[in-house]
């Protein structure tokens, strides 16, 4: 009896959640691999009996034959053992803070676990674990913007392509054309990067080797291909990010460093002592209310946007090219505000 119970548990664990499925031959092989000597006919009988107890269902074709078995999409979890509060908290934090990192197929499969985690934490609301999700929040440092609309069907194709190492065909809207012109491209996906509320697909097109990143929400439609992904020689996603390309480098070169020198209002620059610009950053007194900050940083548009946000509380001394660009931008901005106010 004990052996039959363990065999049935092994069989239940081998059955995937809908829409995935496994046929009897595959389930029989899984049991044999686990050490159980059993015939396919016995597996079929076990499945028939277990389907009357658990939410497992056959995918039946027109002639009445089961092509495969799967758990119902919304099947409740087996409490063997019950979910402990630590696991429930981990799942709840994943659901709350990193949902965009989960492939749709994984997210679908985790939904029952998320619901179970919610129930577990709710039942222990008076404990530390139950209170934790009410006490923790993540807020953006920058101006909060609404996330762009992302086609779920497109996201599913793109995430599945990354999971399976396959290419996909897509219809892509270029930002330069204000989203009005579309191009049909074959995408060779290499990675996914989440930046704020935007999701970027790092990829190449067709057989080209130049790596680019495209916002996932600008893909209007997508269709899976069976063509395997080809990785450019030497490509590494972490190295690609460290090169600064996602911070929009000035010019064509990426990863180019500059020796930045900026005079800041002392109160404005106080946070740089705790969160420095670089490992070699130095802060020195300049005047009574000002400090001189020097640091080696990458020359990017992101840097310029950050410096412009300080307004008259920051003055770039070097490099000269950066100083001149900011001077031109701020001069034009001041000119706009000096003119007669426009009607809204």
Tell me what the structure shows.
A hairpin with a 5-residue loop joins strand 1 and strand 2. It is built from ten helices and eleven strands. The chain starts with a helix and ends in a 6-residue tail after the last helix. It has four domains: about 70 residues, Arc Repressor Mutant, subunit A; about 50 residues, no CATH class; about 90 residues; about 80 residues, Alpha-Beta Plaits (2-Layer Sandwich). It has a five-stranded antiparallel β-sheet with strand order 6-5-4-3-7, covered by helices on one side.
Blueprint (SSEs and pairs):
Elements: H1 2-14, H2 24-33, H3 40-50, E1 56-60, E2 66-71, H4 85-97, H5 104-123, H6 128-135, H7 152-164, E3 166-173, E4 182-195, E5 198-205, E6 212-215, E7 219-228, H8 237-242, E8 257-265, E9 282-287, E10 290-298, H9 301-308, E11 314-318, H10 320-338
Antiparallel strand pairs: 1-2, 3-4, 3-7, 4-5, 5-6, 8-10, 8-11, 9-10
How would you describe the shape?
A: elongated
Question: How would you write the strand order of the largest sheet?
Answer: 6-5-4-3-7
What's the β-strand tally?
Answer: 11
Radius of gyration: 28 Å
- Main sheet specs: 5 strands, antiparallel
Overall tally of structural domains:
4
The helix tally amounts to 10
Beta-strand percentage range: 15-25%
Distance, first to last CA: 80 Å
Structural class determined from secondary elements: alpha+beta
Quick synopsis:
With 344 residues, the protein is α+β, with helices and mostly antiparallel strands. The chain has helices at residues 2-14, 24-33, 40-50, 85-97, 104-123, 128-135, 152-164, 237-242, 301-308, 320-338; strands spanning 56-60, 66-71, 166-173, 182-195, 198-205, 212-215, 219-228, 257-265, 282-287, 290-298, 314-318. The strands form three sheets. Strands 6-5-4-3-7 form a five-stranded antiparallel beta sheet, covered by helices on one side. It has a four-stranded antiparallel beta sheet with strand order 9-10-8-11, with helices on one face.
């Amino acid at each position: 009896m004990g052996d039959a119970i363990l065999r049935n548990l092994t069989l239940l664990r081998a059955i995937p959640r809908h829409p995935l499925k496994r046929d009897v031959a595959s389930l029989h092989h899984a049991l044999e691999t686990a050490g159980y000597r059993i015939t396919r006919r016995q597996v079929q009988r076990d499945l028939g009996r277990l389907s009357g107890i658990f939410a497992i269902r056959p995918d039946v074709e027109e002639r009445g034959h089961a092509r495969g078995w799967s758990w119902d999409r919304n099947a409740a979890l087996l409490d063997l053992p019950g979910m402990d509060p630590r696991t429930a908290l981990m799942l709840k934090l994943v659901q709350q803070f990193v949902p965009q990192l989960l492939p749709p197929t994984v997210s679908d499969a985790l939904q029952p676990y998320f619901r179970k985690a919610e129930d577990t934490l709710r039942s222990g609301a008076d404990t530390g674990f139950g209170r934790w999700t009410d006490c923790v929040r993540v807020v953006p440092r920058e101006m909060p913007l609404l996330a762009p609309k992302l086609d779920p069907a497109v996201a599913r194709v793109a995430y599945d392509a990354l999971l399976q190492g396959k290419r996909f065909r897509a219809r892509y809207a270029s930002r330069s054309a204000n989203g009005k012109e579309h191009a049909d491209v074959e995408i060779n996906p290499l990675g996914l990067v989440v930046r704020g509320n935007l999701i970027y697909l790092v990829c190449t097109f067709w057989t080209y080797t130049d790596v680019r990143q495209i916002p996932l929400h600008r893909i209007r439609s997508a269709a899976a291909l069976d063509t395997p992904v080809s990785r450019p020689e030497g490509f590494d996603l972490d190295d690609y990010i460290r090169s600064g390309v996602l911070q929009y480098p000035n010019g064509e070169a990426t990863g180019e460093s500059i020796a930045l020198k900026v005079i800041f209002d002392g109160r404005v620059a106080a946070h740089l002592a705790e969160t420095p610009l670089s490992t070699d950053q130095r802060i020195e007194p300049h005047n009574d209310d000002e400090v001189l900050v020097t640091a080696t940083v990458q020359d990017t548009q992101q840097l310029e946007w950050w410096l412009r946000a300080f307004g008259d509380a920051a003055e770039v001394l070097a490099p000269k090219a950066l100083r001149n660009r900011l001077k031109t931008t701020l001069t034009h901005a001041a000119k706009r505000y000096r003119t007669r106010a426009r009607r809204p």
